[in-house]
Amino acid sequence: MCGIVGFSGKPDTETLNRMRDAIFHRGPDDAANLEEENFSVGFRRLAIIDLSENIYPIHNEEQSISVFLNGEIYNYQALREELEELGHKFKTESDTETIAHGYEEWGENVVKHLRGMFTFVLYNKTKDELLIARDRLGIKPFYYAEVDKRIVFGSEIKSLLAGFDIKREVDEDSLYKFLTSRIHDINDDTFFKNIKRLLPGHLMIIDSQGNHRIEKYWNPTYSSKFASEKSDEQYAKEFRDIFIEAIKLHLIADVPVGVTLSGGLDSSGITSIASKLYKENHPNTKFYSFSAVHPGETINEEEYIDNIVEHTGVESVKITPSVETFWEELNTWVYFQEEPVISGAPYAYYTVMREARKHVTVLLTGQGGDELLAGYIPYFMTYLQSAIDKGKFLEAFRETVAGRDLYTKFFVDKLIQKLKKDNTINASQMIINTNNTEFIRPQATRNLNKRLFEDVTSLTTPSLLRYEDKNSMANSLESRVPFFDHIVVEYIFNLPIDQKIKNGWTRHIYREAMKGLIPEKNRLRRSKIGFTNPEWEWIERKKEKFIEIFESDSFKSRKFWKADLILQNFKDTLDGKMKGDVLFFWRVFIAEMWMRTYVDNFTVLDTKLLVNLS
Question: Smallest Cα–Cα separation from 342: which of 468, 467, 457, 427?
Fold first, then answer.
């Protein structure tokens, strides 16, 4: 895991170093630059595989190809063996070198041979051009802007702002969708009007004149089939084998590795499998799990965490995020996030990863299981629509009965909200559509597999992976997400619908695959919480802080909302007079704090002073 910055056009070492050092936290172990007549690339390294110093940029034999990599290539050992058989000579043990030689062999199609999370920048000296590629799911970030006939790019937005005079304007459409509909990161727009993101599964080529083109290289498919063609046992075995292999590859590192453990189904499975595999190869090394706990709160999951700790024998480290610490760290946390976040839940991740960095350099997390395997309650309605559309009326009835303990309260509460419109929080009434553009919220499809496909490829996963990257790299920690291994993803996309929800159970195939691998208490748990904070409770405890923000001149001066109405509705919600989307108030709050940090004023912080590597 590292950080990359750069630009096309005439070299400027001072600017390049300024961009590079703005993201010191992404790579405190080493730094390197590549400066050519028409391109400059800077690099900060967090050493994970091949800990040798001063090996970047990585070259081919003739040094006509130079590569910088942010991320990991999990199948690099197999690729290296294949390329050596083809006659390529390797100089390092780095996974990055497989990209250099792979490009010699396959050209731009090298990306199709890579299994991993990555953004890489490759300079072809013969063609005098850059090839930039982002992994299929978008686990690793890449931002760019066009400034003074240059293409300026980096792993983080702050590096672009540190290097060039980019107008820090709000992308008003992005802000409007975020505030009214909770939608964000669904396309190449960022919250900055003049900065774009390279989409997942895409590559960019920049020529010597600064011209660029973008191409999509990953085109996954999904199955719309409802009914299984094989037994549950066969599907479970297939998934188990693929998933264990993915976790095995994700454990490859020359530094200590651990896991996040929320106590939920997904992290319980990863912790159980990863700890067993790790101990087989490192019998004398402690394997750590890291958890956020909330003693005395309704969202506390310690009983499930402790159950996995006892089952696996991992070394458990628990962190208790507090609202007081959150407010003390708010400005720094907003700085690292770079764009507004949908809730305060990622702060729990931030605190866990900060503590984890004291013990390990790599973490495996359970991110993605719910989005891939229909782990959230609202997916049940789409399941019912899928069953009805396929004529599976008996299955629809069976699931309604079998899952009634999970779904009834959720849908009754939704119905009550609709019937009581007069006291329901209505974001659209408080937000001003400054561009007067018509926004049509994406309609949820009636086919469950299609909906999961859309959520993973565009609607929800990109933002979750943004949070994952920002909060891990803020602490110089590499976060890995086995569920988003593209082999795992493609397999799940093509499962029949009834392997996702069945017999009243969400994530059916995963539960079946985990038989014998995790305790039954965890495998068969019905409730779901995950890494989060008691969000509304935290807001209530610090209501005076929110009121102070909503009453501020800065907040009232924004053209994006009706400040007085927001303040009144917030007070009514605190008094219990309004119900519904209570986290709307978080969204306007965090949008205000983001604008204060990045739009009104922007100062590059010296992250050497913020990262605790002890």
Answer: 467
- Which two three-digit tokens encode residue 252? 């490859």
Half-sphere exposure of 354 (CA within 13 A, CB side): 18
69 neighbors 23 (Cβ within 8 angstroms)? no
- In whole angstroms, give the CA distance from residue 403 to residue 434: 43
* Cβ pair 46, 27 in contact under 8 A: yes
Q: What are the beta bridge partners of residue 70?
A: 119
Say which residues have a Cβ less than 8 Å from residue 425's Cβ, sequence separation at least 6: 569, 573, 578, 579, 580, 581, 582, 584
The encoded tokens of residue 238 equal: 């297939």
Q: Among 251, 390, 89, which Cα is nearest to 382's? A: 390
Radius of gyration of the chain (CA): 24
Model pLDDT for residues 17-38, shown as the tens digit of each residue: 999 999 999 999 999 999 999 9
Coil, strand, or helix at residue 38?
A: coil
Residues with Cβ within 8 Å of 186's Cβ and at least 6 positions away in sequence, in order, are 177, 442, 458, 459, 462
Q: Measured between alpha carbons, how far is residue 537 from residues 136, 175, 299, 510 in Å?
A: 37, 25, 11, 32
Nearest to 488 by CA among 246, 228, 137: 246
The helix/strand/coil state of 69 is: strand
Q: Which two tokens stand for residue 91?
A: 């100089």
CB-neighbour burial class of residue 213 (10 A; exposed 0-12, middle 13-18, buried 19+): exposed
pLDDT, tens only, 473-486 = 999 999 999 999 99
Can you list the positions of beta strands (E) in 135-222? 143-147, 150-154, 196-197, 202-206, 212-216
The strand order across the sheet containing 315-319 reads 315-319, 288-292, 257-260, 362-364, 478-480
For 463-482, b where at least 16 C-beta lie within 10 A, e where not — what string?
bbbbbbbbbbbbbbbbbbbb
- Other beta carbons within 10 angstroms of residue 280's beta carbon come to 10
410-418 long-range contacts, CB within 8 A, separation 24+: 410/377, 410/378, 411/381, 417/579, 417/580
Question: Nearest CA to 190 among 18, 378, 9, 338?
Answer: 338
Give the integer Cα–Cα distance in Å for 3 and 43: 6
57-96 in b/e form (b: 16+ CB < 10 A) is: bbbbeeeebbbbbbbbbbbbeebbebbeeeebebeeebbb
Provide, rounded to the nearest whole percent, the portion of the chain with pLDDT above 70.
96
Tokens (6 digits) for 414: 């939704």
At 478 the three-state DSSP class reads strand
- Residue 301 pLDDT > 80: yes
Q: Within the chain, what is the greatest distance between any pair of CA atoms?
A: 73
Tell me how crowded residue 428 is: count the other CB atoms within 10 A of its CB.
Answer: 12
Write down the pTM of the prediction.
0.96
Q: Is 586 left (phi over 0), alpha (psi -120 to 50) or beta?
A: alpha
C-alpha distances in angstroms, 323 versus 214, 542, 548, 581, 612?
Answer: 43, 8, 16, 21, 21
The structure tokens listed for 436 are 């007067």
Quote the CA–CA distance of 456 and 601 in Å, as a whole number. Answer: 34
Q: How far is it, in rounded angstroms, from Cα 31 to Cα 602?
A: 24
Q: CA 414, 416, 420, 424 torsion: positive or negative?
A: negative
